[in-house]
Amino acid sequence: MSGGWNTIESDAGVFTYLLQNLGAKDVQFEELISLDPEMLRQQSPVYGVIFLFKYPTGEQASSTPKDGTFDHDASENIFFAAQTIQNACGTQALLSVLLNKEGDVDIGPHLREFKEFTTAFPSELRGEALSNSELIRTVHNSFARSSPFIDETQRAATADDDVYHFIAYTPLNGVLYELDGLNPAPISHGPCTESEFPDRVIPVLQRRIERYPAHEIRFNLLAMMRDLRIKAREIGDQEWLAREEEKRKEWQYENALRKHNFVGFVGEVLKMVARQKLQEGNGAYEKWVEEAKGATKKRVEDRRKKGIASDELD
């Protein structure tokens, strides 16, 4: 393999344009802010959901899942890949839904070729093929935040790190499946049609969340659905269409910012300011420092008068 995989954010804009750059058409993601079947149903057609949670690194592996049952025969009929590399689980969860919805979704020529190539593979080889796909890795890494300090493609997680993991839920062949590449097989959560999916998946998610302490709130849920702009055009809702187009522009802007490293820019600004003060003479520089100290002191005093402790400063 020619390169590693960086961490990407659980963000609707990131995942939507990741889909688009992989070649999929007329599909997007939306973040769900509550576990409400009706909210999910309103987005119909929904192809599946991707759930992000803090991975319990201290748990021992088990031959049986805590919820549902392993369906070892399902891998022969659906796309399921073992996770064989760090940091790829977000894109892997996305593909676990997308590649199983070919027919409902135009997955594009590159992913169609990849799926056909790996159809006869066992899950371990599918995972290796995914991890070694230059196209998928390049598109994935293009959405990682730029960092001048850490090369995540070469860094392994340590015991002190908070480790997060993505998994997918989708209805396939009349069954609700949980697709997690760290498990040996897809997990069946019982019968489920496309129309029943919102009512079936929400209780499964609630049971998973209930296994965590009450103070744990670091979860995220993204739904994969048909492009909402299509529905807006179909019903002739121009205001809705305009909002969706504006949202796409915001996503593009945010994704562009993720690709840029601003540390160099900030450093140049600081050097420019320092150079200017030095050119004005040492006295001007010292005066500038003292003015800054005085402003900080005044701010602390003002907050103390209002009853705000100094350690609560931004």
What are the main properties of this structure?
Ubiquitin C-terminal Hydrolase UCH-l3; single chain; alpha+beta; 314 residues; seven-stranded antiparallel beta sheet; 2 domains
What does this 3D model show about the protein?
This protein is an alpha+beta fold and 314 residues long. Helices cover 44% and strands 13% of the residues. The chain has eleven helices and seven strands. The C terminus is likely disordered.
Quick take:
With 314 residues, the protein is an alpha+beta fold.
Architecture blueprint of SSEs:
Blueprint: H1 12-22, E1 27-31, H2 37-41, E2 46-54, E3 69-70, H3 89-98, H4 109-118, H5 123-131, H6 134-141, E4 164-172, E5 175-179, E6 187-191, H7 197-210, E7 220-226, H8 228-235, H9 238-258, H10 263-279, H11 282-305
Helix pairs in contact: 1-9, 8-9, 10-11
Distance between the termini: 44 Å
CATH architecture of the largest domain: 3-Layer(aba) Sandwich
Question: Shape from CA axes?
Answer: elongated
Average pLDDT works out at 85
Provide the spatial order of strands within the biggest beta sheet: 1-7-2-4-5-6-3
Tell me the CATH topology of the largest domain.
Ubiquitin C-terminal Hydrolase UCH-l3
Using DSSP, what is the number of strands?
Answer: 7
Number of folding domains?
2
